[in-house]
Amino acid sequence: MSTEISAQTQSAAQHPRRSFWRTVNNYVALTKPRVMELLLVVTVPAMILAQGGLPNLWLVLATLLGGAMSAGSAGAFNCYLDRDMDRKMKRTKNRPLVTGEISDRNALVFAWVLGALSVVWLYFTTTWLAAALSIGAIFFYVVIYTMLLKRHSEQNIIWGGIAGCFPVLIGWAAVTNSLDWPAWVFFLIIFLWTPPHYWPLSMRYRDDYAAAGVPMLGVVRGRATVGLQIILYAWATVASSLLLLPAPGISWLYGVVAVTSGGYFIIQAHRLYGNAIRGQEGKPMQVFHGSITYLSVLSLAIAIDPLLPF
């Protein structure tokens, strides 16, 4: 054992630069950058819609940085609290707290520091409301979702998904220091979108979640039941997206994009359900990735529409 530790120490000494960047990459992994990227995708469109045009570039960058730190903090807390489950799941076996490349204590300190920085940064560079919403987002994801719902309810992702809606409110509040009705409609769209986005993933990794004792809908219910729920939420998501049509800066172009991209999303959901009722697994990951495409296209339409001259 001592020989192995000595070899590792010698290797680190010979490659300090590689070790430094490996450590940096591990801390970045704690922030769940893929989730963070998806959250930031909706922040800028919310800011453009709130401004009715292009906001100040510095304000956009400041909000994105604060939002990234907020989401990263929530992700790091999640990794710390779920480290026991992550050790039982194949898809999370390479996370830094599972491999031991970052200690539990360091991960917790990192999460607290990043969260505090996000609040302070948003307070001094944007608005007090955006900073307060950052606290709310972290609290909801860490306490409501991770600590209270995830291990105990099949409805976990429905209500826990509210945390993923906060970036829209943060972006809007950063521009206006208020929360007008279009911000809440955008919030509703993401709230309804989250279950049909995540449930296909729970179907794909059903065995993983079952091994970790997580009662995701894909674990506790059959494929047909999950497929039907995905359809219902997909339809509700597309219907809610049309509520933005009366918003200032939104035109018929957004309506066309909302209907066509929503139709694609709904078709994917129906295909998955059709396979499920025939006793086939289908392609849940196709729906998962399709949902990301749908939200990205819809967000792009929200961002572009207020900038058009008609």
Automatic annotation (TrEMBL):
Transmembrane residue ranges: 35-52, 58-81, 102-124, 130-149, 156-175, 181-199, 226-245, 251-267, 287-304
Enzyme class, spelled out: transferase
Pathway: Porphyrin-containing compound metabolism; heme O biosynthesis; heme O from protoheme: step 1/1
Keywords for this protein: Cell membrane, Heme biosynthesis, Membrane, Transferase, Transmembrane, Transmembrane helix
InterPro entries: Protohaem_IX_farnesylTrfase, UbiA_prenyltransferase, UbiA_prenylTrfase_CS, UbiA_sf
Subcellular location: Cell membrane
Pfam families, per database record: UbiA (PF01040)
EC number: 2.5.1.141
Origin superkingdom: Bacteria
Chemical reaction(s) catalysed: heme b + (2E,6E)-farnesyl diphosphate + H2O = Fe(II)-heme o + diphosphate
Membrane topology category: Multi-pass membrane protein
Main localisation: membrane
Note: Carbon 2 of the heme B porphyrin ring is defined according to the Fischer nomenclature.
Task of the protein: Converts heme B (protoheme IX) to heme O by substitution of the vinyl group on carbon 2 of heme B porphyrin ring with a hydroxyethyl farnesyl side group.
Family label: Belongs to the UbiA prenyltransferase family. Protoheme IX farnesyltransferase subfamily.
PANTHER family, per database record: 4-HYDROXYBENZOATE SOLANESYLTRANSFERASE, PROTOHEME IX FARNESYLTRANSFERASE, MITOCHONDRIAL
Name by which UniProt lists this protein: Protoheme IX farnesyltransferase
Lineage: Bacteria, Bacillati, Actinomycetota, Actinomycetes, Micrococcales
